[in-house]
What we know:
- The protein is mostly beta strands and about 250 residues long.
- The chain has one domain (about 15-250): Jelly Rolls, CATH 2.60.120.
- Helices cover about 5% and strands about 45% of the residues.
- The chain has one helix at about 235-245; strands spanning about 15-20, 30-35, 40-45, 50, 65, 70-80, 85-95, 100-105, 115-125, 125-135, 140-145, 155-165, 175, 180, 200-205, 220-230.
- The longest helix is centred in the C-terminal third of the chain and has 11 residues, at about 235-245.
Amino acid sequence: MAVEFGPRVANEGLVFAFDSASNFSYGGYGTTINGLAAGVDASLTNGADHQGYSLLVENNGGYVMLDGADDYIQTNDITLDSNRITVDCFVRAGTATTAQVLFEFSNNFTSVNDGFLVSYYDTYSGITSDLLISRKGDYGMNMRAYSKGLLPPDSWRHLCVQFDETQLVSDRNILYINTEKQPPSQPQSGHNADNSGTNFGTHKLCIGGRYGGAAGPFLGDIASLRVYNRLLSDDEIRSNYLALKNRFGL
Length: 250
C-alpha cells in the first residue's frame, strides 16, 4: 500500500491545470498542452517556447518561456460559472517595464461582463505602473492595484489571485505572493462596481497576453498554472506552494 507524505496540490474545483514538469501535460514537442483537469487543453501560440529541465534552478521541471513580443498560451473554453474563483501559478517576470498581461479570461475584456484581467506594470485610470487585478461584470469594472515589486525580475514567485464577490467591494480582488496575503499598493481606482450577482462565464484563458496576442505580451516564464471555480483556503494555498516551491529555489 502506498503512503503519501507532505503537502499536496488541491484538486477540488479544478477546471484547468498545466505543469511543465509533467510529461503528460507537455511531452516536449509540438504546440499542444494537455490539460490536467476537466478535459481542457491549451496551445503554445506564436512561438511560445517550452524549456526543459534547467540546471539554473535545481529540478524545476521546465517552464514556458514567453518572449514579450507576441507569444502566449491559450486554453480551450473554460466554464467557471461561479463568483468565487482562484488562479494559482508559479511565474518569473523578466526585465520589461511596459504594460504586460499575465492572464485574460475573456475574448475582449473591455466589452464582456463575465471576465477578468491580471496585468503587470500597468497604468490605468489614475493607477500608475503596478500589478492590476480587474474583474468585469454587469455593473462595470472592479479593479485593485498591488505593488509591481512583488514580482521582481528574474525571480520565481508563487502568485495566487482570487476573486470573491461575496465580500465588500473593496475586498474582492485578492492577491497572495508566496502564501502571504498582500495589501493594495494604491488608493482604490474609482472602479468599484458591485458585480456580486454576476458569475464568471465561459471563455478562453490567455496566459501571457491579451486574447489574440495583439496587446500586452508578457516577458517572463510560467511553469505551472491552476484555475479553480472556488476559493482555495489559506491552508490550501500554502499546501500548493509547499508542494512545488523547492523546484523554484523558494
